[in-house]
Specification:
Layout lengths: L1 E5 L13 H15 L3 E6 L10 E3 L13 H24 L6 E4 L4 H9 L6 E4 L8 H6 L6 E5 L2 H5 L3 H5 L1 E4 L21 E4 L8 H11 L3 E4 L8 H9 L9 H9 L9 E3 L5 H10 L3 E3 L9 H8 L4 E3 L5 H4 L6 E3 L3 H8 L7 H11 L2 H19 L6
Parallel strand pairs: 1-2, 1-4, 2-3, 4-5, 5-6, 6-7, 8-9, 9-10, 11-12, 12-13
Helix pairs in contact: 1-15, 2-3, 7-13, 11-14
Length: about 400
């Protein structure tokens, strides 16, 4: 099958540090190509993932623009979508059309490709977000038998508008590369626990800080703030009167609720991490914390933690109850006090049990099997004439 895989214009594939959907695209693209599919990647110019072709509207990711006001962001997404349309037309004109487009670009991807009608290949759009965001679009969009949707968890799909659920073919849980080496034993790990995410209110960064302080457990925060990868970048952006970062809600929240709790000792922000540094941090942390305030749709970082053999402590919101087996691969904590209690029980969790569960549920082959089935369903349904 020949697939145009659209990762959007926000981060390279694979991402350097933070990047949930881009990590998913990297994992899926690699596995699909291993199975013999041809995959052309729509991304940004500094992506390094091997693919059978690449199209990009921008030389580098535009992630830091995401928190800007709508008029400053919408043109980025549409410029990228225009490049995708041109790639589709180029392959059509050459007589080697795509069988299917798999887009991960929120709203703009399905909207633009749906507007092309039969001039575009059939489309599968993966939903990576809380579907309350842009609910008006999903409640009204009609893919007319050519654009279909996939969720990343059953709980996510269940929260979507009825019109969206009718066009959703199923949910494919996320996957991550499974480490070849066994997990680090408990007695060889650091004393610290980890938060690996954007540092923002929805992710509950402040809850993690307070719970760890109450439990006497060191905490490392790894992730960006308002699109800025580290302290130096954030301070430089804030010092520039022309930079919009000071107006970003995540930045204002971080400065008020998180920064005062950091001490560069027991509570540290180390910025975004990637590659070997990220792998080592995951493998050697005592646990990874997810005190989320929102209904998490997919939980890539949860899968990464468990694959590394590292227990997870999380609020039971969104997909988290489907990813974490309470008492076996971590703990589901209803509130802040329960988080504190769970931090005292980490020695009850066997790292090998975490790694084994992840290998069986979150391996790239499992995700690719799910998407191959959905691709076949998309092509089948698109070939059936639609009632007028």
């Amino acid at each position: 099958m020949k697939i145009l895989m659209d990762a959007g214009p926000w981060l390279p594939v694979p991402p350097v540090g933070y990047g949930g959907l881009e990590n998913v695209v990297a994992t899926l693209t690699t596995e699909l190509r291993r199975r013999g599919h041809t995959v052309v990647l729509a991304t940004v110019g500094d992506s390094t993932l091997p693919a059978d072709g690449r199209v990009a509207a921008f030389p580098s990711g535009r992630f830091e623009r995401l928190a800007a006001p709508y008029p400053e962001v919408t043109g980025v997404a549409h410029a990228h979508a225009s490049a995708v349309v041109e790639e589709i037309r180029r392959h059509e004109d050459a007589g080697v059309p795509f069988d299917l487009v798999h887009t991960h670009l929120e709203v703009v991807g399905p909207a633009v490709l749906g507007a092309l009608g039969p001039a575009a290949p059939p489309v599968l759009h993966t939903l990576h977000w809380d579907l309350r965001r842009n609910a008006d679009f999903y409640a009204r969009f009609d893919g007319r038998g050519r654009v279909f949707f996939a969720g990343v968890s059953e709980s996510q799909v269940a929260r979507g508008p009825a019109a969206l659920r009718r066009q959703t073919l199923g949910a494919v849980p996320l996957a991550v590369p499974i480490p070849a080496q066994p997990p680090v034993p408990r007695d060889e790990r650091s004393d610290a626990v980890l938060v690996l995410s954007r540092l923002c209110e929805a992710k509950g960064t402040d809850v993690a800080l307070r719970a760890c302080r109450a439990a006497g457990v060191p905490l490392v925060l790894a992730g960006p703030v308002g699109g800025q990868p580290d302290r130096a970048s954030l301070e430089a952006a804030l010092a520039d009167p022309a930079h919009p970062v000071a107006g970003y809600p995540d930045v204002r929240w971080f400065l008020e609720h998180v920064d005062p709790l950091l001490d560069d000792d027991r509570a540290r922000w180390i910025g975004s991490v990637s590659g070997a540094e990220k792998e080592d941090l995951l493998r050697r942390s005592r646990a990874v914390l997810f005190p989320i305030r929102w209904p998490e749709p997919g939980g890539t970082a949860v899968c990464e933690a468990l694959a590394a053999g590292t227990p997870v402590i999380a609020h039971p919101r969104g997909c988290l109850p489907s990813l974490v087996e309470h008492g076996v691969t971590g703990f589901l904590a209803e509130d802040e006090d329960a988080f504190v209690a769970a931090l005292h029980r980490l020695d009850e969790i066997d790292p090998a049990a975490c790694a084994s569960a992840a290998a069986g549920r979150f391996a790239p082959a499992v995700m690719a099997d799910g998407y191959e089935a959905l691709y076949a369903e998309v092509l089948h349904r698109a070939a059936v004439p639609q009632a007028v």
